[in-house]
């Protein structure tokens, strides 16, 4: 990305990427007043294509711990290294133990500013007067000064007693970590499937799943697992915006903002002007899940094919003249792109 990498610490060094390094390197960097950042800072710069504010990704070190001082220098772990969990990482276990002992603050902080605005023609854009990095730095600085626990509902949602979180595409060890963080910080119940009380869907990969689609349809936060890791690092719920999977699922951000701006119960209108739909009993995803998705997006579902203008999934029986048989992918892809896609590519006739 254009930076020069030095194998030794010298006067030209401006940044030290520190991850479980030698205490002497940490002390020398502190004395030289260079920027100490974690490996995640490099990853975020690469993902965003810009130099991200270093204050958002500080390196951590515990010089008072004799175990760290005796450790030999290790190079940064490769990308295919095992995920850090409380069972195999003493730092993480120590943080979790500390969080478990602390009482969650009673007051919840919901900021009233955001860099996001909605443009009717161009969709979601960030306000040019307030860059996202500046916004995030201000948010984290405010939390650090006030020692407040940021509401897990984020910038646009409000607190409710029924708030739930869903995990998807996540191996067992990551699920266990999410459960530990939620237990320590509070504010959520974990459920298996997105429902009306769900506000956050945390994904271990970028794979499109049923819970991802349900989260989009309901206007939930769709977040990467990295958000959980940084909540653990900061020992509090942090702003969700930098960890939103908006590149992979652009409709998620739009639906989330629509949910915030709508008065009363949130309702999508994606399929509102479509004919009544009949979902085949042999469909994949299962019939009931497709029915829920269609209804959440404003569509009408009928119980018999005689009343339908569109049949979703394979169907070999008699049907009304002029009705269409479309693949289940038409529903899933339309929700993913938040756009009524042409029938032609999904016609099963």
From TrEMBL:
Superkingdom classification of source: Eukaryota
UniProt xrefs under InterPro entries: BRCT_dom, BRCT_dom_sf, Microcephalin-like
Gene3D superfamilies according to UniProt: BRCT domain (3.40.50.10190)
Protein name: Microcephalin 1
Source taxonomy: Eukaryota, Metazoa, Chordata, Craniata, Vertebrata
GO process terms (BP): mitotic cell cycle
Domain BRCT: 1-59, 154-245, 266-348
Listed SMART domains: BRCT
């Amino acid at each position: 990305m254009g930076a020069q990498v030095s194998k030794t610490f010298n006067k030209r060094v401006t940044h030290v990427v520190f991850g479980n390094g030698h205490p002497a390197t940490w002390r020398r960097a502190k004395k030289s007043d260079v920027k100490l950042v974690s490996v995640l800072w490099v990853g975020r710069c690469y993902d965003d294509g810009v130099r991200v504010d270093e204050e958002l990704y500080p390196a951590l070190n515990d010089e008072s711990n004799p175990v760290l001082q005796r450790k030999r220098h290790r190079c940064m772990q490769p990308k295919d290294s095992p995920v850090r969990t409380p069972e195999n990482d003493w730092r993480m276990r120590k943080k979790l133990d500390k969080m478990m002992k602390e009482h969650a603050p009673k007051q919840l902080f919901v900021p009233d500013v955001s860099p996001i605005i909605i443009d009717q023609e161009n969709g979601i854009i960030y306000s040019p007067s307030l860059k996202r990095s500046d916004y995030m730095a201000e948010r984290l600085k405010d939390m650090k000064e006030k020692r407040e626990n940021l509401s897990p509902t984020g910038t646009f949602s409000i607190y409710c007693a029924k708030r739930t979180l869903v995990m998807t595409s996540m191996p067992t060890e990551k699920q266990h970590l999410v459960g530990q963080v939620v237990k320590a910080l509070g504010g959520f119940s974990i459920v298996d499937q997105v429902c009306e009380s769900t506000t956050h869907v945390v994904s271990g990969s970028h794979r499109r799943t049923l819970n991802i689609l349900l989260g989009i349809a309901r206007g939930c936060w769709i977040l990467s697992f990295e958000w959980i890791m940084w909540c653990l690092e900061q020992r509090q719920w942090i702003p969700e915006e930098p960890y939103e999977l908006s590149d992979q699922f652009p409709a998620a951000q739009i639906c989330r903002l629509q949910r915030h701006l709508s008065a009363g119960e949130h309702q999508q209108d994606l399929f509102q002007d479509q004919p009544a739909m009949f979902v085949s009993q042999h469909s994949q995803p299962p019939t009931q899940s497709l029915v829920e998705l269609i209804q959440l997006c404003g569509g009408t579902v009928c119980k018999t094919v005689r009343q339908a203008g569109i049949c979703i999934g394979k169907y070999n029986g008699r049907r009304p003249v002029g009705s269409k048989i479309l693949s289940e992918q038409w529903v899933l892809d339309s929700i993913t792109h938040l756009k009524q896609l042409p029938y032609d590519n999904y016609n099963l006739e």
